[in-house]
């Protein structure tokens, strides 16, 4: 099994840059438990999800982060990490990751 360190480092860079954000992001950070992160998901209407940071190690989740980088760069319109995929796809993915 190959270790994919560059992708993990890249994911951490995305999160670090997106979390340096606005007071809105800081005010919502209070209700995110330690070991989790808030993510906004959706194509037009964004819904907020709180997921374990352990998902960052999963290749399928890293692919979503790459899509977010391609669409938004590091300027996320919601003030937090935004992933441009359909909500049902995100829920399906995270339900599969939750069983790992």
Automatic annotation (TrEMBL):
Belongs to the ARG7 family. It comes from Actinidia chinensis var. chinensis (Chinese soft-hair kiwi). GO terms for biological process: response to auxin. This is Auxin-responsive protein. It comes from the Eukaryota.
């Amino acid at each position: 099994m190959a270790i994919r360190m560059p992708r993990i480092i890249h994911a951490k860079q995305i999160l670090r840059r997106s979390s340096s954000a606005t007071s809105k992001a800081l005010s919502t950070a209070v209700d995110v438990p330690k070991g989790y992160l808030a993510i906004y998901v959706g194509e037009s209407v964004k819904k907020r999800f709180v997921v374990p940071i352990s998902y960052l190690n999963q290749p399928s989740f890293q692919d979503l982060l790459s899509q977010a980088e391609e669409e938004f760069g590091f300027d996320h319109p919601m003030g937090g990490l935004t992933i441009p995929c359909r909500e049902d796809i995100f829920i399906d993915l995270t339900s599969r990751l939750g069983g790992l």
